[in-house]
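Bit of a strange request maybe. I'm writing a small parser for structure token strings and I need a real example to test against, not something I typed by hand. Could someone generate the tokens for this chain?
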Amino acid sequence: MVGYGASPNEVVEELKELTPIVCVLGNHDHACLKKDFKWFNEAAVKSLVWTTNNIKKENLEFLRKIPLYGALNFKDFKIYVTHGSPFDHLYDYVYQGETRDWMSFFKATESDIIILGHTHVPMFMKFGEKYILNPGSVGQPRDGNPKACYCILNINEEVKVEFKRVNYNIDKSAEKIIAEGLPGFLAERLYMGL
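Reply from user aminoacidic:
Good idea to test on real output. This should exercise your parser:
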């Protein structure tokens, strides 16, 4: 939720309005809570330090209550949600087309549908009647398309995922990043979707 952009308080306050929702902690959220930046590149460290210095205490407390993973049942499906993977909730990058023991993901989570993040790249994989997906990124897409990305998971007789792309005011976000003295690269990449 936080860590790259210049609006951490606004993001957390929006989440508070949506609660209760299933929400999981990301690696940047965790880094802000622990003030542990060793996993990050220079631009990310600068933005994380800025975030920890600018996020309101009550918003940090809200983040502190967010779990590393969530599980829910919907119809006859068990759904598991985490940022990285079931084996490393914060830092595992999972990409479509990798060679992995995908069934181990389902065994570890006892789930039918696994929803991941971290890569900022939309993904949908089907394994018989089991599914792994990544909705992409609203705040910082990294698949070469700068439009905000999210998905709609439709569970009826079958599971369908529809990825949606929407324009947003990239100029406004980029200008705020620059105005706050954050690395220019974080603003520039928004225009490229990288």
